[in-house]
Amino acid sequence: MEMELLTEFPHAHMDRRPRKRPRLTWDVTPAQIGLLCGQGVGDFASLVAPTDQTCPLPFYAKVTRNASPPQRGDDKDGHYKFAVGDNLTPRYKIYSKMGEGTFGQVLECWDREKKEMVAIKIVRGIEKYREAAMIEIDMLQQLGKHDKAGSRCVQIRTWFDYRNHICIVFEKLGSSLYDYLRKNSYRPFPIDLVRELGRQLLESVAFMHDLRLIHTDLKPENILFVSPEYIEVLENKVGLSSMRLPNQVPLR
User: Fold this and answer.
1) At which of 149, 171, 193 does a domain end?
2) pLDDT of 251
3) What is the DSSP letter of 78?
4) 28 near 41, Cβ under 8 Å?
5) CATH code for the domain in which residue 114 is found
6) Which pLDDT does position 72 carry in this prediction?
7) For the chain, what is the domain count?
8) Is residue 18 in some structural domain?
9) What is the average per-residue pLDDT within 190-199?
10) Could you tell me if residue 13 is inside a domain?
């Protein structure tokens, strides 16, 4: 049977340009958000045409609350550049910097979804640190799976990849053992407190060994008290000096 050849493409009017991937919510710039005409960022169900053609004034407040921060680029060492008040994805808002190390930085952030403060470890945007972070995430998830009570190790909430930085979300804990040592001018703790700290450390290390895991960086900086509360205790009867001690002793 002889087929008739078409001399013209039947849908010549169609736009055949390649399609880009849909933008993630934290990729959207404030100017583009304005096109949504009052829809809240991060709510995909709201990305529909508005029923009226006017944008109410409160729309601007919704945009600035969840808008992505400007692209500042990393510093020379690959650390993420941020400003207090920035959003780290639409879910988290940066409140303060808690610490910095070889791996990256730890930021105190507000979790809008869970309505709680969290600590987010932002790993340097360098491949070897990104790879190490993925191994750390795997270990933390294994520990969390077996630590049902959440009393043996710091609890990982979730993780995500943001602007080439692995971000690990942890529960927010109190000061480290090193912080207390430093603030007390490295004076020794009361013996009862030393015994309790030693007991918890040995139990946590034994828990890891049962899972055939070894902690290779056990030091005062990596031992955190669960609560930020502390008490001032007089070091001697005449009250010439005092020590700052944790009010609650549970560790992570």
Assistant:
1) 171
2) 79
3) -
4) yes
5) 3.30.200.20
6) 82
7) 3
8) no
9) 92
10) no
Q: Residues of the chain with pLDDT > 90: what percent?
A: 48
- Tell me, rounded to whole angstroms, the distance of Cα 62 from its chain centroid: 23
Q: Per-residue pLDDT tens for 19-41? A: 444 444 444 433 333 333 333 33
Q: Order of strands, edge to edge, in the sheet holding 104-111?
A: 87-88, 92-100, 104-111, 116-123, 165-171, 156-162
Structure tokens that stand for 42 in this block: 């991060």
- Backbone dihedral angles phi then psi of residue 107, each to the nearest 5 degrees: -115, 140
Instruction: Tell which of 171, 200, 227 closes a domain.
Output: 171
CA dihedral 112, 116, 121, 125 (to 10 degrees): 0
Kindly report whether the global pTM for this prediction surpasses the value 0.85.
Answer: no
Asked if residue 233 and residue 214 are part of one domain, the reply reads: yes
Catalytic residues: 217
Task: Please count the other Cβ atoms lying within 10 Å of the Cβ belonging to residue 81.
Answer: 14
Question: Are residues 167 and 181 located together in one domain of the fold?
Answer: no
Alpha-carbon distance of 47 to 22, in angstroms, equals 12
- 102/117 Cα distance (integer angstroms): 24
Same-domain check for residues 158 and 210: no
Q: Answer yes or no: do 152 and 117 share one domain.
A: yes
Whether 160 and 167 have beta carbons less than 8 Å apart is answered as: yes
4 lies in a domain?
Answer: no
DSSP 155: P
Give the span between the Cα atoms of 163 and 83, in whole angstroms. 15
Q: Tell me if 142 is assigned to some domain.
A: yes
Structural domain boundaries enclosing 229: 177-246
> What is the torsion angle, in degrees rounded to the nearest 10, for the CA atoms of residue 43, residue 49, residue 51 and residue 56?
60
Classify residue 161 as left (phi > 0), alpha (psi -120 to 50) or beta. Answer: beta
- The answer to whether 154 and 171 are in contact (CB under 8 A) is yes
Q: Is the dihedral of CA 244, 246, 251, 252 positive or negative?
A: negative
